[in-house]
Amino acid sequence: MKRTRYVSAAAAVVLIVGGPVTAAAAVSDDAARTVTAAPALRADVTAQGAAKAALKHYPGVIESLDKDGTVWHVDVISKDGKGHAELEVSASGAVTEQNRDTGENAGENKALVSAKVTAEGAMKAALAAHPGQVTTVEWDDDDDGTASWHVEVKGKDGKTWDAQVDPTTGKVTQSGSDSDSDDDNDN
After folding, report:
1. Of residues 104, 84, 89, 11, the one with CA closest to residue 52
2. What is the pLDDT of residues 42-61, one digit of tens each?
3. Of all helices (H) and strands (E), which one includes residue 99?
4. What is the per-residue pLDDT for 54?
5. Rounded to an integer, what distance in angstroms lies between the CA atom of residue 83 and that of residue 68?
6. Partner residues linked to 22 by β-bridges
7. How far, in Å, CA of 132 to CA of 123, rounded?
8. Which tens digit of pLDDT belongs to each residue from 144-176?
9. How many C-beta neighbours within 10 Å does residue 64 have?
10. 168, exposed or middle or buried, with CB in 10 Å at 0-12, 13-18, 19+?
């Protein structure tokens, strides 16, 4: 009887911790029963959550973050500017590494790595100017040497707002509404 309780308790722990899995729980020495857990509720990860998960997996500086359906595509540059990782963050926050390169030219990434305002700071500034959900954040380093963060925010009204955020001050320097939400970043 004690053995049955231990096995049942262990199966319950597996179901609680492991999510939607199937586990066999011994009810007695002679019989076994299959228990199926209810599917876990999907909680879509926000841009901020995707950024946090990506940086935990590959420490550095986010170069771009873009939502495609329920998956976030995140490019991270290492803190020394020589490494680059292309990551995908699922709706549950699981990170999958798509590609990793250690032969980057650190000089090309110097402005991004040394920027006072990170992608996370740019998202925060853009959301302060236009409440909603961030769908894209990208480092924009023009040929003339000027750099800024381009942030797209999907407002509650369904419109997508574009914001340019200064990488030194965090000030939203330019913003405007693109159009109604008929872009590729629909949820």
Report:
1. 89
2. 568 999 999 999 999 999 99
3. strand 95-101
4. 97
5. 24
6. 36
7. 11
8. 778 999 999 999 899 999 999 999 999 998 777
9. 18
10. exposed
pLDDT at 84 over 90: yes
- 142's CB contacts (< 8 A; 6+ apart) are none
Alpha-carbon distances, residue 133 vs 113, 114, 145, 165 (angstroms) = 25, 26, 29, 16
How many CA atoms are closer than 13 Å to the CA of 15, on its beta-carbon side? Answer: 16
- Taking the CA atoms of the chain, what radius of gyration do you get in angstroms? 22
Q: Which two tokens stand for residue 45?
A: 């990860």
β-pair partners for 24: 34
Sheet (strand 147-154) strand order: 95-101, 84-89, 71-77, 61-68, 133-141, 147-154, 159-165, 172-180
Backbone angles phi, psi at 5, to 5 degrees: -65, -45
Q: Is the pLDDT of residue 180 over 80?
A: no
| b/e code 19-49 from CB counts within 10 Å (16+ = b) | eeeebebbeeeeeeeeeebeeeeeeebebbe
β-strands 133-141, 95-101 pairing: unpaired
pTM over 0.85: no
